[in-house]
């Protein structure tokens, strides 16, 4: 928000006055003594404000500390002494006298403290085991659940730094006319340079009600981003790196990968523990326990736990990945956690700091990398205060693009800690970069690759760029060019279209769709579109009626066997949708379409109607869809949203009614479909993807409108299809399918001496389908007798895959080995097959 000139002058005058008054608070000097003996004390850790990292360890009784920001508080900590906190004012900033008092340490009976790792015959001999047993007995739950109502403030700061920069790197041609950015770089402990390149601050107000009903709301109050306000790709990338964790859980979610928690009840199966010291943590005496993974090849942490000596609550913890972390694009991850413990049963989050080092090519410590650091401060907790019901309502103003715009004065008050000199420089540097054409070109390249669209002028993008080329037997080589309107990330309307041409059939195809959103709160939206295209039907059971979805036919460049089973579809659709509740959508689609074979000589869609032989199916239907995504997180409020990575399930219930006679439609029919999809973390054993679908056609319809068990004759990986089925091999009035795929994250291969160096990860999967097809549904089609359902027994496939294939930190290739379990006597049955593809994930 721009300040008026008068206010800017007042602010400048006030700043100069305040600077003169508080200048001395940037430096504090003094002397530290023992409270009883008055003797000077050395080896004292000094912390500035609320920092968890000491700025100085004294070598004598005198000290002097400096900071780029105002020092309003100092904390003094030394072994066998109580933590001392002193408020700093201009009057006390010079010659401060600090007196530390010794404190007797309580302990568990017969506990022996070891500084070095000690081997024990069994875990019961380990004093750390006895301490952790007490922690498990008193396992705490988040204190928010015990109160009728609660509110608290949450301040989040995400910063990206380019790390390990050197003079050779800074002198590269790419930085011509951009070299001023290195004025904002800072030296690191390695002697290299770190350059801040991105900073995002967010302030939230959280509301909760546990009784009488369960309600929560997280209101974004303010957000400030360093020069990337309009760059949704970068902001979402930053947010997507992090997940909320609870140290008491058995599994901690990082990048949607399960890491065993060192405080989990099964921690001793993964970690070795060693009690090394007792220290004071924020005035509380705590056991300091070091833990390390028994095997460095597994996904696990190392670090320290700080356990209260009286209540056995976790006061804090540090978690750092091992040097052999096997996660794509990640060199290391570390987290510092602080908790408050209001009573013996609960805890409250106080501060979380997570740093992630990302590198695309190498895991060497000297490699150029990005350090993504996120800190979250929780404060201003209030409990059992009455909350109006309207607090939990979604309001129109919350979705206004300018709702979170706040001035600098607001942020000075809102931040728990003032920004460092380097952090302040990020805003200044990015403002300058926004005026540099070369930088904008670099950002544009990144945005194009990430969004698949290239912006040619204000309001117009062309793409998707990865859909330009395709190939199939009907069209031969296929070219598709498209475009969309795009004025900003919160556009309430969008128009998209594409044109395609097949060089073999020499036919033009097209598709166009428009959508408009009337209300950002409940996302009330309408849309309409039409297309004429060649499509591979029968590759998805719970289909979408969207016009702009990419044709599967144009995606298959390499395939096994011959695929002539393509359809020519002319379709016009209208839809409306609304979200009456968060993450619950009601959608109604009206569709008019005509379907015929795109290759009559090789694929027969002809059918009988009232004794007449027909080659084109005319269909008009209405579909009502209920779509639930509990726990899903989205960014922005426009007609298109960007989803954050979560483990949220997808639940879909659809009812379709075909209406004979409407726009010359041929059939009345009723169809009901259900889908449930959920990724599940299974601790250190990896992650399982679970997908279940079921449906029923209650009436007789021709093949073009029938349920086809999805086959995959391509050599690529296609989710929720059957790799060894041919297209249209199984057709069903009533069906149910189940796909279970488990990713072990290298759990097994890490035991094999030579293979483990390759850092491959293993995948296991099984798929099954069962269905029935009536005689009437067979007889309506000219070629009906050759179609059947998997009704003799459950059709199944099984196999395993190797993923994480690549080099350095780019390991995005996967190969699957598939076996067909039964129905092996069928003509052209594919008993074994290999699929391969790219999967870009952690």
UniProtKB/TrEMBL annotation:
InterPro entries per UniProt: CarboxyPept-like_regulatory (IPR008969), DUF5686 (IPR043741)
Gene3D superfamilies listed in its UniProt record: Carboxypeptidase-like, regulatory domain
Keyword Oxidoreductase carried by entry: no
One Pfam family cited in the UniProt record for this chain: DUF5686
Domain of life: Bacteria
Signal sequence, start to end: 1-24
Record key words, sorted: Signal
Descriptive protein name: DUF5686 family protein
Lineage, highest ranks first: Bacteria, Pseudomonadati, Bacteroidota, Flavobacteriia, Flavobacteriales
């Amino acid at each position: 928000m721009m300040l008026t000139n008068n206010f800017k002058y007042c602010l400048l005058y006030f700043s100069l006055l305040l600077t003169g008054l508080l200048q001395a608070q940037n430096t504090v000097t003094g002397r530290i003594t023992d409270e009883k003996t008055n003797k000077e004390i050395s080896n004292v850790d000094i912390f500035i404000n609320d920092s968890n990292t000491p700025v100085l360890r004294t070598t004598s009784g005198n000290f002097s500390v400096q900071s780029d920001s105002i020092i309003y508080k100092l904390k003094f900590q030394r072994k066998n002494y109580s933590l001392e906190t002193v408020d700093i004012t201009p009057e006390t900033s010079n010659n401060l006298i600090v007196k530390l008092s010794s404190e007797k340490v309580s302990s568990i009976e017969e506990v022996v403290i070891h500084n070095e790792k000690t081997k024990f015959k069994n875990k019961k001999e380990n004093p750390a085991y006895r301490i952790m047993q007490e922690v498990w007995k008193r396992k705490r739950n988040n204190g928010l659940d015990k109160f009728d109502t609660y509110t608290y403030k949450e301040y989040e700061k995400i910063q990206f730094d380019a790390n390990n920069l050197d003079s050779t790197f800074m002198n590269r041609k790419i930085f011509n006319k951009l070299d001023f950015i290195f004025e904002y770089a800072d030296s690191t402990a390695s002697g290299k340079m770190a350059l801040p390149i991105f900073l995002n601050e967010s302030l939230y107000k959280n509301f909760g009600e546990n009784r009488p009903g369960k309600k929560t709301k997280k209101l974004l109050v303010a957000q400030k981003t360093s020069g990337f306000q309009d760059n949704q790709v970068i902001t979402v990338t930053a947010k997507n790196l992090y997940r909320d964790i609870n140290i008491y859980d058995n599994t901690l979610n990082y990048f949607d990968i399960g890491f065993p928690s060192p405080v989990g009840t099964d921690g001793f199966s993964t970690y070795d523990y060693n009690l090394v010291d007792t220290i004071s943590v924020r005035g509380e005496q705590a056991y300091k326990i070091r833990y390390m993974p028994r095997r460095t090849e597994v996904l696990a942490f190392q670090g320290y736990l700080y356990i209260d000596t009286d209540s056995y609550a976790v006061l804090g913890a540090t978690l750092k990945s091992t040097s052999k972390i096997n996660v794509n694009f990640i060199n290391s991850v570390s987290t510092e956690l602080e908790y408050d413990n209001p009573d013996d049963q609960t805890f409250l989050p106080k501060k979380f700091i997570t740093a992630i080092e990302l590198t695309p090519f190498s895991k060497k410590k000297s490699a150029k990398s990005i350090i993504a650091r996120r800190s979250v401060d929780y404060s201003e907790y209030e409990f059992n205060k009455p909350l109006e019901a309207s607090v939990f309502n979604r309001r129109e103003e919350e979705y206004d693009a300018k709702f979170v715009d706040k001035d600098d004065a607001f942020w000075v008050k809102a931040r728990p800690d003032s920004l460092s000199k380097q952090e302040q420089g990020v805003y200044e540097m990015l403002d300058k970069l926004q005026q540099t054409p070369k930088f904008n070109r670099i950002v544009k390249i990144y945005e194009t690759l990430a969004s698949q669209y290239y912006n040619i002028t204000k309001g117009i993008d062309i793409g998707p760029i990865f859909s330009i080329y395709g190939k199939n037997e009907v069209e031969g080589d296929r070219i598709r060019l498209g475009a969309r309107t795009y004025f900003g990330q919160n556009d309430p309307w969008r128009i998209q279209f594409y044109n395609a041409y097949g060089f073999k059939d020499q036919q033009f195809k097209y598709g166009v769709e428009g959508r408009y959103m009337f209300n950002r709160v409940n996302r009330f939206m309408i849309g309409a579109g039409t297309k004429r295209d060649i499509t591979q039907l029968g590759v998805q059971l719970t289909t979408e009626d969207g016009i702009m979805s990419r044709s599967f036919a144009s995606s298959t460049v390499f395939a096994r066997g011959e695929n002539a089973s393509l359809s020519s579809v002319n379709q016009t659709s209208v839809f409306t949708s609304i979200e009456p509740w968060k993450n619950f959508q009601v959608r109604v689609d009206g569709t008019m379409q005509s379907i015929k074979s795109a290759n009559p000589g090789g694929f027969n869609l002809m059918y009988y109607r009232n004794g007449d032989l027909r080659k084109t199916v005319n269909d008009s239907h209405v579909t009502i869809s209920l779509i639930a995504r509990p726990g899903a997180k989205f960014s922005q409020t426009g007609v298109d949203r960007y989803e954050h990575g979560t483990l949220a399930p997808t639940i879909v219930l659809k009812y379709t009614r075909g209406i004979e006679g409407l726009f010359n439609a041929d059939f009345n029919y009723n169809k009901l479909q259900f889908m449930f999809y959920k990724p599940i973390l299974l601790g250190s054993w990896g992650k399982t993807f679970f997908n279940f679908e079921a449906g029923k056609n209650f009436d007789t319809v021709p093949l073009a409108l029938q349920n086809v068990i999805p086959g995959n004759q391509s050599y690529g990986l296609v989710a929720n299809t059957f790799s060894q089925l041919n297209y249209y091999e199984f057709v069903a009035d009533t069906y149910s399918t189940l796909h279970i795929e488990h990713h072990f994250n290298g759990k097994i291969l890490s035991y094999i001496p030579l293979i483990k160096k390759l850092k491959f990860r293993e995948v296991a999967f099984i798929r099954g389908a069962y269905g029935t097809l009536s005689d009437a549904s067979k007889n309506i089609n000219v070629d009906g007798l050759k179609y059947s359902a998997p009704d003799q027994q459950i059709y199944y496939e099984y196999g395993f895959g190797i993923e994480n294939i690549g080099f350095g930190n780019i390991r995005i290739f996967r190969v699957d080995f598939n076996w067909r379990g039964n129905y092996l006597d069928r003509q052209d049955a594919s008993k074994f097959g290999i699929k391969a593809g790219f999967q870009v994930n952690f």
